[in-house]
Specification:
disordered N terminus, mainly alpha, two-stranded parallel ribbon
Length: 238
């Protein structure tokens, strides 16, 4: 059988050349970061399971209504990352998804549901909800959002669609936050306080965009590590 000299035309690749090229590939980096997020979310759900059961019981007995709160949020804009569908009928700024949290507010009466900006002294918050918000325990169900691929552990916080539409007309580059998956925690959440003005939002957007520019496995691990003290000592923002 004739081989046509194939053995002479195949280049010899050294091991370090292959690993170097692969390590620099953006899909490899994103795959590594995604694997880290899935691992952290899985471990987090296992470790936090007893706490989540206790929180669920506390929410249920403290006020009438469901244990979990579901809400539509704006997620990753695939058009800015992989050339996705540009023919979207309504430009929401990103792919909408359902976020999960422990309920911290009183159930609204039918027809009174309004998308409003969360505030530190929101009168709708229940007593147990106030504690959950200060300690961020209400965010634990979002570990499921990470496993579903809607979020990462670290990233810009996702916003409600109507509020998103308003903010992207008032805050320059607000839509640029959608270049990455939204997160449970982020650089803005560990360094800044609750929003009380548009200027506060601008500061958070600046922090989010700085994160996007410097995102890496090391940076994600640093933010994750800094989130624990924020939860314990009730500092930072949501």
């Amino acid at each position: 059988m004739t081989t046509f000299g194939l053995h002479t035309s195949v280049p010899t690749l050294r091991r370090n050349e292959v690993s170097s090229d692969t390590a620099e590939h953006p899909h490899y980096r994103e795959g590594a970061r995604r694997a880290l997020n899935v691992a952290v979310a899985t471990l987090g759900l296992v470790v936090a399971a007893p706490i989540m059961v206790g929180v669920a019981v506390a929410v249920k007995i403290s006020s009438p209504g469901p244990v979990f709160y579901r809400q539509r949020r704006v997620g990753l804009d695939s058009r800015t990352t992989n050339g996705g569908n540009h023919r979207r009928k309504i430009d929401l700024g990103g792919r909408p998804f359902t976020i999960y949290k422990f309920r911290t507010v009183r159930v609204a009466k039918p027809g009174q549901e309004v998308q409003v900006w969360a505030s530190q002294n929101d009168p709708r918050i229940t007593p147990i909800g106030n504690f959950l918000r200060r300690t961020r325990l209400d965010e634990l169900p979002q570990l499921l959002n990470v496993l579903l691929g809607d979020m990462n552990v670290v990233g810009p916080r996702p916003e409600q669609p109507e509020i998103f539409q308003n903010l992207r007309t008032e805050v320059p580059n607000y839509h640029a936050r959608q270049q990455v998956r939204p997160g449970i925690t982020g650089r803005a959440q560990i360094t800044l306080q609750y929003d009380s003005s548009i200027d506060d939002v601008r500061k958070k957007v600046a922090a989010d965009l700085e994160y996007i520019e410097s995102q890496s496995l090391v940076e994600d691990l640093r933010i994750m590590a800094m989130t624990a003290p924020v939860m314990l000592f009730r500092k930072g923002s949501r």
